[in-house]
Structures are given as structure tokens and as C-alpha cells.
Specification:
Elements (H helix, E strand, L loop, with lengths): L6 H8 L3 H6 L1 H60 L10
Length: about 90
């Protein structure tokens, strides 16, 4: 991806005369202000994505732990059921 050019980069490339710079002064100032806003939005978006990724990682780990605990509980319930089941249900078939 090409690096993003700033308004100053573009102005240097265009090599505007002082008269042209003055003629477009308000537009240039507006572009510079928007550049600052865009940089702040990009920084905030990056930070939000970083925090969201951390939270999703935590949720993933917690889901894995819950699944493992559910598996352990299921095994314990099955073991308890075998202990309390009537003798006829405990027959082992070969």
C-alpha cells in the first residue's frame, strides 16, 4: 500500500506560488485540520481494535474453560448416575 501523502507533501509536489498559496489558504488550513482529525480517529480506532482483541481473547479463553468444566461435570454426572441406577441397568454387556 502506498504511504498516505499529507497536505504538505501535496503542496510541495505542486510547487504553488505564494499567490496560489494565499488564494487557497482557507482550503489548505481546512485540509490540515482534517488531517489532524484523521490521525486522531486512526489512533482511536487502533486503540479500540486493540482493546476489542484483548476482550475477545479473554472471552475465547473463558469459553474454552467453560467447555472443559462442562465436560468434567458431564463425566461426574454420568458416574453418579451409574452409582444410583438400579442394578439391572448396571449390567455390562460384552
Amino acid at each position: 500500500m502506498k504511504p498516505v501523502k499529507t497536505i504538505d507533501d501535496l503542496l510541495r509536489e505542486k510547487n504553488l506560488t505564494p499567490e496560489e498559496m494565499e488564494e487557497h489558504r482557507e482550503l489548505i488550513e481546512e485540509c490540515r485540520a482534517r488531517e489532524v482529525q484523521l490521525k486522531e480517529y486512526a489512533r482511536a480506532t487502533h486503540e479500540s481494535m486493540r482493546r476489542m482483541t484483548e476482550e475477545l481473547d479473554k472471552m475465547s479463553r473463558m469459553a474454552e474453560e467453560l467447555w472443559q468444566e462442562a465436560q468434567r461435570l458431564s463425566q461426574r454426572v454420568n458416574g453418579i448416575y451409574l452409582h444410583v441406577a438400579p442394578a439391572t441397568m448396571r449390567k455390562v454387556y460384552h
